[in-house]
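Q: Convert this sequence to structure tokens.
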Amino acid sequence: MIDLGLRVLAAVRRLVGDHVEHNAYFVDFPRNVPDTLDFWAGLLREAMLDPVAAARLQPGTLNLLDLPRYGRYQHTYADLLAAHDELIPLAKDRVTVLELGGSLRDEARKLYFSLAGSEVPLAAEDLTALRALAAFCAGDRPERVPVRENRAVLNEVRLAAGQPLLVDTVTDVLRVAALCSGGDVTLSTPARLRSFRRAERRILLAALDAVPAAKHGDVLRHREQWKRLGERLHPHEYPQFSSAAQVFEVARGARKAASFGGRVEAALAEGRTGDAVALLEHTPGALLRRLDHLLRTGGGPAVLEAAERAAAHASGRVLLSLREHLQNRLAPVDRIFTNRHGRAWAAADTRSPLDEDALHRTLALLDEEITRRLPDPGELIVDPAVLDVALPLSGKSAAPGLGVLPRGSLSFVDGELLRFFVYWRQAGRSTDYDLSALMLDATYDNPTHISWTSYGNDFATYSGDLTEAPEGASEFIDIRLPHATQPIVIPQVHIYAGERFDEAAEAFFGFMTRDAAQEGRPFEPRTVRMKSDLRGSGRVALPLVFLRGDDGAWRVKWLHLHLSGHPAFNQVEGNRVTTSRLVRSIVERDYLRVGYLVGLLRAKPSEGGHVTYIGLDAPADLPEGARVHTPATLHELIPA
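A:
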């Protein structure tokens, strides 16, 4: 029991960020933080009075960041602990009761089927887990593997075992080859393909040979990767796979093959909407993804009829994505574009409006089809706190961590003191991350900020700037919510110099909440409400935004955004306009939330006999056999 407890607690400490020492630049933070100008004047005065330091100061331009005591800890972690009282526990502190669970085999199979059968793309960490589970559960075969990346993970295991691959497009084969070579299964980054054994080459070529020639046009999207794969597979040595050899001829340009998307685009460019619809009806998902465009090009009733036929055959994720898209066409706001890495940009919506009757007809059709696919909920029990959580239509943008919800989710902030924290540890070169917060009024204007250039105001305090982290560094910002004079607070993490988030040895962000009367250290693990890894190639991270509603209550909305930023010297003053526009686009967008599916489930006739629970945490008194959906398994609510 003691051994198990130590392992579990070590995992939980890492989950909340308590596995490292969180020191602060100002030892008494949040007390005795000096005024910004007084702090800099004091550093400069000390440097001038120190003969050694003064000798290093060159005439001309003075770099304040080079002052001797700036940006480095001036005390130990033990000094910090001695300067702070113990945390005062509160009755409302959260306690999580762990279930014993089943055997290793049973729990592994359950998680394996959940991840493999997910209707939405998984985060990178979940794909890694699926890879390990697929090898552990090699004898078990999921009924459905709808997501291509998940299928590639399973195919990697099948290839190693000498079994035929599960593919229906040529790109499925390229994904397997990239994954087996340690590359990116999404193919967004070209992989350095390895050499394959003869048995592996035969399986890969056999899979390619089985794909209809009509799909060979997909090769053009990754032409250079296909050329490299041809060099590894030697298709000329296997004359029995003549159709597979044609794939590589298309890649080299020796054989013509028009892609499906190219034929559709050509028809639309020439004004042949009817021909485009006829082509798209063979791929219902693609037709629904282009429905807005087709309706705007004058397709009329024929397009709506085709959409009705396609809705019965498209995936549930496509139906939900289209539903979210169309409900935002009712009251257009700025369009927000995000890629799989969380890089985002906003633009004004210049599209012509859709016909209102056609829009409402399509929404009703989607609601009906989604309801039809939802399972019988039996006795439905719902935690109201989960209703404003956004449906996880993709897991790729969310970073792993504790309390992380999908982009667009809303949840209440339950404390009087809000504290942001960031921790990083450089891998090789000197690295300076800066925690900052941008504050805006209700019109997303009149900005003020807290950062290393502004240590405090009437309701916020900064813990001090650290400019290197060979042993790790932490920065904090306190927001006293009852005294906040601006209703929008946007925490940010900037890379001022050094390694990117995905290059650092470790980097994470989070927030804590406390009551005003609580004391404690700058970092108290039991008060952590959210903690997530910092990742990606962007130079500015925007994890979430805090909003004060008309009722005076504060809520947090998840962003999961990154700005490209500058190669160095990023700071909050330099991206205020971009940040405010991006955040406003996310806040004003009407995301499809769990409450939408709950409404459909409640309207669905039920035969009873079982219990379905949906909430942020599963209570301990649910009947045996209850179907439980928490944030970790919300993807299971997405219908097939």
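The radius of gyration is 28 Å.
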